[in-house]
Amino acid sequence: MNTVASTVGKFVWHEQVSSDPKQAQDFYTQLFRWDTEVFKPGELDYTMISSGGQSHGGFSKALEGAPPPHWLSHVRVENLAETIEKAKGAGGKLAAGPFEMAEVGRIAILTDPQGAFISAYQPEGEGPAAQGVFVWDELGTTDADEAQRFYGEVFGWTTTDMGSEYGGYRIFNRGAGDENGVAGLMALPDDSVPPHWQPYVAVDDPDATTAKAKELGGGALLEPTDVPKVGRLAVLRDPQGATFGIIRPDPAS
Question: pTM for the full model?
Fold first, then answer.
């Protein structure tokens, strides 16, 4: 299989961005029992999330002017310069970058028209393709129709509406005929929470994980709940305020 072709348009990396990466590392490694590995020790000192012998993301120190602590999701693209221009043309903005990172590739942080942050990533070489830890990404937005248009223009994603029984929840697909989906799209109930992307981590026991997160100083924005044909999920907040989801997928989904 062509690894590049199989991952373009998918989320391939996730990082918690905050002013205190060590605090974030301590929380998440205790919560999920992740291992860590330092990339370029003594030079970059970037701590990566390691599980199952693969790297899945990392803990990054926020740049000046960055939003409050959050999870940043990275989408693989073939041509970063073209992606940036598409984003600008579709009403988005270049929030930071593009950055050239030796042995990693080129990265640009974008904001969509509603203000949600997302990263476009053109790896050097094959790049990461690890799966199994971060199993889903979800956009909560104030204008689902505009978000659908924007991401369609920028990444070529199409959408599938799950219907009224799921509150109009939509699935982003990499293109026509791709039924696996790469992310979710939902309208926020009010403007108390700004538009944002958040990842979901697969867990065996959402209830126990939620209880553990609270013990470690986090909290629950959505207590564990069952969603038919999807699984049992919860939305949590780490001690620094970054939100993320956990899910035990429905075996039949």
Answer: 0.91
Fold of 3-123: 2,3-Dihydroxybiphenyl 1,2-Dioxygenase; domain 1 (3.10.180)
For residues 49 and 28, the answer to whether their CB atoms sit within 8 Å is yes
Phi, psi of 168 (to 5 degrees): 80, 15
| Residue (of 21, 15, 18, 29) closest to 212 by Cα position | 29
Q: How far apart are CA 181 and CA 25, in angstroms?
A: 29
In this structure, the number of other CB atoms found within 10 A of the CB of residue 110 comes to 24
| pLDDT tens sequence across 166-199 | 888 999 999 766 667 899 999 998 878 899 999 9
Contacts of 178 (CB under 8 A, 6+ apart): 158
Tell me the fold of 134-249: 2,3-Dihydroxybiphenyl 1,2-Dioxygenase; domain 1 (3.10.180)
Helical (H) or strand (E) element with 147:
helix 144-155
What 3-state DSSP class applies to 125?
coil
| Residue length of the chain | 253
| pLDDT one-digit tens code per residue, 113-156 | 999 999 999 998 776 666 779 999 999 999 999 999 999 999 99
At 137, list the tokens: 């990404």
Domain ranges of the chain: 3-123, 134-249
